[in-house]
Design goal:
The chain has 312 residues and is α/β, with parallel strands linked by helices. The protein folds into two domains: 6-36 and 156-311, Rossmann fold (3-Layer(aba) Sandwich), CATH 3.40.50; 43-139, Rossmann fold. It contains eight helices and eleven strands. Strands 1-2-10-7-8-9-11 form a seven-stranded mixed β-sheet. Strands 5-4-3-6 form a four-stranded parallel β-sheet, with helices on both faces. 50% of the residues are buried. It binds pyridoxal-5'-phosphate. Residues 72-73, 173-179, 208-210, 254, 256, 281-282 line the site of pyridoxal-5'-phosphate (PLP). Pyridoxal-5'-phosphate binds at residues 72-73, 173-179, 208-210, 254, 256, 281-282.
């Protein structure tokens, strides 16, 4: 047996074809299932990479303490890696996160600092920075660290190409922009016609893990020249698509994956033929406190066909 730690199980996630979702014969949809990572999300990849680089550069010392602002997946990934590598971990998070998230953080032994729900993740980032400066914690800072992008450029992107050399479009949610920047750049280097399409919540809508640029937050890692378009998705559509994915394919994915599927289907309608790769960032377990799968929200008439597709 190889010497293997839990950190060595990150990445090399499966990609599966969604055979019952494609809107017409010419288009094939493939989903990269990031819930196969040890804490169940894509964020294990970037946290491992950022922590390793911080160790290598000496910014993080053995037995050190790491702080981060997160509404879920990054915090959980950091809590796990802190345990595995012997670091104290503190997560700053808004009070309205899904209840499974603080419980998971606590199970991994992370400390939690709350900020009021209405102040959101932007305030959580400020508070984490203040604590880091005042108390000498190392701030992970997934929004600013280029190792976030590198984890995808060197990991997720090549894995997709190894499974499917001919990708016509890559569709993923936009949070820190790490996934879209890293995978997008890698796929475009292999084939300059590959399109990178960002999925954002419709302004005023919430989709866990995703950010709306129109709401005023521009992730520092975002380089618009690597994006070919963005599709704005309402939360109702994301919920229904996640439920539909479970029904048609037996895949239990999270809400942002529902948003990605909804957006990819929109894009597929205008594509005569080709391969679309969808990145499903996590699974549905954390969101079971909602009735999403048993009672997905009814479509409101006014909601139909209201998603905006923006190309540049
Ligand atoms: C569930 C979920 N989906 C998608 C994303 C977006 O990924 P990225 O931060 O790489 O843009 C995140 C990240 O925060 C997330 O937690």
């Amino acid at each position: 047996m190889h010497e293997t730690t839990v950190l060595d199980t990150i990445g090399r996630t499966p990609m599966v074809e969604l055979r019952h979702c494609s809107p017409h014969e010419g288009v094939r949809l493939f989903a990269k299932l990031e819930s196969w990572n040890p804490t169940g999300s894509v964020k294990d990849r970037i946290v491992r990479r950022m922590v390793q680089e911080a160790e290598r550069s000496g910014r993080l010392e053995p037995g050190g303490r790491i702080i981060e602002a997160s509404t879920g997946n990054t915090g959980i990934a950091l809590a796990m890696i802190g345990r595995a590598r012997g670091y104290g971990v503190r997560i700053v998070t808004p009070e309205n996160v899904f209840p499974g998230i603080p419980r998971t953080l606590a199970a991994y032994g992370a400390e939690i600092t709350w900020v009021p729900a209405e102040e959101g993740v932007r305030r959580a980032i400020e508070v984490a920075r203040e604590i880091a400066a005042r108390e000498g914690w190392f701030m992970l800072d997934q929004f600013a660290d280029a190792n976030n992008v590198r984890a995808h450029y060197e990991g997720t992107g090549p894995e997709i190409l190894a499974d499917l050399p001919n990708v016509n479009a890559f569709v993923a949610g936009l949070g820190t922009a790490g996934t879209l920047m890293g995978v997008g750049r890698r796929l475009k280097e292999a084939n300059r016609d590959t399109l990178a399409i960002a999925v954002e919540p419709h302004p005023g809508n919430q989709v866990q893990g995703l950010k709306s640029l129109a709401d005023g937050f521009v992730p520092p890692l975002l380089d618009y020249s690597l994006l070919d378009g963005k599709i704005l998705v309402r939360s109702g559509h994301a919920f229904r698509a996640a439920a539909e994915l479970m029904r048609r394919e037996g895949i239990f994915a999270g809400v942002s994956s529902g948003a990605v599927l909804h957006a990819a289907l929109k894009f597929a309608q205008r594509l005569p033929s080709g391969n679309i790769v969808l990145l499903f960032a996590d699974s549905g377990w954390k969101y079971l406190s909602t009735d999403l799968w048993t009672r997905p929200p009814e479509a409101e008439e006014s909601e139909e066909e209201l998603d905006d597709v923006i190309w540049w």
